[in-house]
């Protein structure tokens, strides 16, 4: 006979009570601050859902029933990205667990703290190829930070406490807990484990940077004539927004960010260069090609950022700050490696600067900033207007104008890159699958953000191909009245695939045209109980966007745009960041900068530096 569930308040920290493994799980989740769980039930996880029924009835935890486990994983992922808390999702054994894999891999690539709970066949049936048995522990080993199989319910509270600690400390990441069905049912003498009380032998992430290396970094910053801050998702994860801004302003250092780093620095600031890399701004890519000091902050020198690696910041010294020692020096050997929490390292660097009491050299970067501003004027991002159709860029700009402070999620493809170029986001208000590039991320991600932050405006920018990957989550929006606005940038293609086929595959558009079989998105939204709209002209764009934002409830809007619009600038594979497609011919680096040749050795591209980097002769 099942023991009646009691609330957490009735189980003090060291009180022993007779409970089930499922109760121990739910009580432990609640103790770790979990308020929302995204999931989908099934046979092996039913004991946990039966216990969850009691916790939902008392209002202590709310479960969001997704329509596909992948949607639940993405929602929990975005919940974490938006709040900095650990997101939680549930799935049953077998196909329920394997449906979570893409979402787990997405979180792993972007270093997002999640705890994933999967049901499993009973302990005695493990290894027997039982119904819906899958070794999800083994399947996910390469894509989790850590994982557990709970063999004894007495370990449940400790495992949950460890999982939350691991997921949220050091370099964040997903942690899997696989729970056999009979473990959830078994009764035992339950003793809770409170957050922050577990100690893991051998797991001690380095938080404080080495003082000597911090001093060395400060020395390089003081000497640099053309410094550049290259900032990634680690700055978001550590909450280093204020410290980063202070460092940039003290030394007048321009800032470029990765796709994951968007929002960590005020994007309307005159020092902000936007995103760099394959579809970064021209001025950010020219700057990284010409800087003499690159300060990498919570970034991993990803191939989409660096282009041809041996030509990435080729003349620059490098300071690399990251909490994960495996990332420091992985792709580029830095002159000054600093392992530590980004925010703490920047705090210590700024403190060291204040202790010395020596102000920066007057106008140290003035010539460098003037040069960057000239690139900014010569190569601005373009918002084309067509006589017979809307451009994707003008749709995104209108959204940015009317909802500047919204939380934006995206799917993956051209619309994602245009959004990254034209939206100006604050910290944690840009939520996109970067490392894995997961189509179908945007809609369930928006759902997770809105559940976490119900009073905030949440907008998903999707593509007509990506949206169909997880469009079933419209049902979740309808059921729980989750007020998300989804905007489909509809060009009838797998847009980025088409662009690559046009540029590199002789315009052979193999399996990238999505027109045939495309649903009527307005009617489909209405079938799910969601307001559907279509915007087809420039004249109605502004008013329709205002209507969408004002509507109380979820909205799906289909916006046909120019079918052949490409996303530029673009760095072709194997090329340096200075060699961008889609700009006027004068964008070639040799024409965009003033060439200076060394009279002693003949080296070129010395630019504004006073000394030849090859032979040291004063120019």
Sheet with most strands: strand arrangement:
3-2-4-5-7-6
Q: What is the CATH topology assignment of the largest domain?
A: Rossmann fold
Distance between the termini: 88 Å
Number of separate strands: 22
CATH homolog superfamily of the largest domain: Thiamin diphosphate (ThDP)-binding fold, Pyr/PP domains
Overall radius of gyration: 26 Å
Class by alpha and beta content:
alpha/beta
The CATH architecture assignment of the largest domain turns out to be 3-Layer(aba) Sandwich
Q: Which stretches are poorly predicted, pLDDT < 50 over at least 5 residues?
A: 1-6, 586-597, 599-604
Mean pLDDT: 93
Number of domains: 3
Strand residue content: 15-25%
What can you see in these coordinates?
One of its GO terms (molecular function) is flavin adenine dinucleotide binding. Pathway: Amino-acid biosynthesis; L-valine biosynthesis; L-valine from pyruvate: step 1/4; Amino-acid biosynthesis; L-isoleucine biosynthesis; L-isoleucine from 2-oxobutanoate: step 1/4. It comes from uncultured Coleofasciculus sp. Keywords: Amino-acid biosynthesis, Branched-chain amino acid biosynthesis, FAD, Flavoprotein, Magnesium, Metal-binding, Thiamine pyrophosphate, Transferase. One of its GO terms (cellular component) is acetolactate synthase complex. The chain has 23 helices and 22 strands. It is of the alpha/beta class and 619 residues long. It has 3 domains: 8-190, Thiamin diphosphate (ThDP)-binding fold, Pyr/PP domains (Rossmann fold); 211-378, 3-Layer(aba) Sandwich (Rossmann fold); 392-560, Thiamin diphosphate (ThDP)-binding fold, Pyr/PP domains (Rossmann fold). Helix 13 links the parallel strand 12 (293-297) and strand 13 (317-322). Helix 3 crosses helix 18 (442-452), helix 12 packs antiparallel against helix 15 (366-378) and helix 16 packs across helix 22 (538-550). The chain is globular and about 70 Å long. Mean pLDDT is 93; it is low at 1-6, 586-597 and 599-604.
């Amino acid at each position: 006979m099942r023991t009646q569930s009691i609330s957490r308040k009735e189980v003090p920290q060291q009180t022993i009570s007779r409970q089930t493994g499922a109760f121990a799980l739910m009580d432990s989740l609640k103790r770790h601050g979990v308020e929302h769980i995204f999931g989908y039930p099934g046979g092996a996880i039913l004991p946990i859902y039966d216990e969850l029924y009691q916790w939902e009835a008392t209002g202590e935890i709310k479960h969001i029933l997704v329509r596909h486990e992948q949607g639940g994983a993405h929602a929990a992922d975005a919940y974490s990205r938006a709040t900095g808390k650990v997101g939680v999702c549930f799935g049953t054994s077998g196909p329920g667990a394997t449906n979570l894999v893409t979402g787990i891999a997405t979180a792993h690539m972007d270093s997002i703290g999640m705890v994933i709970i999967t049901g499993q066949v009973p302990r005695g049936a493990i290894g027997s190829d039982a119904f819906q048995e899958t070794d999800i522990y083994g399947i996910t080993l390469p894509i989790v930070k850590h994982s557990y199989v709970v063999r004894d319910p007495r370990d449940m509270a400790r495992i949950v406490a460890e999982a939350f600690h691991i997921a949220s400390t050091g370099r964040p990441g997903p942690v899997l807990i696989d729970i056999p069905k009979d473990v959830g049912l078994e009764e035992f003498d339950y003793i809770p484990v409170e957050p922050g009380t577990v100690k893991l032998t051998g797991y001690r992430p380095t938080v404080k940077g080495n003082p000597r290396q911090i001093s060395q970094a400060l020395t390089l910053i003081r000497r640099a004539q053309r410094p550049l801050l290259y900032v990634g998702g680690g700055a978001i994860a550590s909450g280093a927004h204020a410290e980063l801004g202070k460092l940039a302003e003290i030394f007048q250092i321009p800032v470029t960010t990765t796709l994951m780093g968007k929002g960590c620095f005020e994007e309307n600031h005159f020092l902000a260069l936007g995103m760099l890399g394959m579809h970064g701004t021209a001025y950010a890519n020219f700057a990284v090609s010409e800087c003499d000091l690159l300060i990498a902050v919570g970034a991993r020198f990803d191939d989409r950022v660096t282009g041809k690696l041996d030509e990435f910041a080729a003349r620059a010294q490098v300071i690399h700050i990251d909490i994960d020692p495996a990332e420091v020096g992985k792709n580029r050997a830095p002159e000054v490696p600093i392992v530590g929490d980004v925010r703490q390292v920047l705090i210590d660097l700024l403190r060291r600067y204040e202790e010395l009491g020596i102000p920066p050299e007057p106008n140290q970067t003035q010539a460098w900033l003037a040069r960057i501003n000239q690139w900014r004027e010569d190569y601005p991002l373009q918002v084309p207007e067509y006589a017979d159709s809307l451009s994707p860029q003008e749709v995104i700009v209108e959204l940015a104008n009317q909802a500047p402070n919204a939380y934006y999620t995206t799917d993956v493809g051209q619309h994602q890159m245009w959004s990254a170029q034209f939206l100006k986001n604050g910290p944690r208000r840009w939520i996109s699958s970067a490392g894995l590039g997961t189509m179908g991320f945007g809609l369930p991600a928006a759902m997770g953000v809105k559940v976490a932050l119900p009073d905030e405006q949440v907008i998903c920018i999707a593509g007509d191909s990506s949206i169909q990957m997880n469009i079933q989550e419209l049902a979740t929006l309808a059921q729980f009245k989750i007020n998300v606005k989804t905007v489909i940038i509809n060009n009838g293609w797998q847009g980025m695939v088409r662009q690559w086929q046009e540029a590199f595959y002789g315009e052979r558009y193999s399996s990238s045209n999505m027109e045939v079989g495309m649903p009527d998105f307005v009617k489909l939204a209405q079938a799910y109980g969601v307001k559907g709209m279509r915007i087809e002209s420039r004249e109605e764009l502004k008013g329709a966007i205002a209507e969408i934002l004002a509507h109380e409830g979820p909205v799906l809007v289909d916006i046909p745009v120019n079918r052949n619009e490409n996303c530029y600038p673009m760095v072709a594979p194997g090329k340096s960041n200075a060699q961008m497609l889609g700009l006027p011919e004068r964008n070639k680096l040799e024409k965009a900068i003033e060439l200076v040749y060394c009279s002693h050795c003949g080296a070129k591209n010395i630019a504004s530096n006073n000394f030849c980097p090859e032979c040291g002769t004063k120019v």
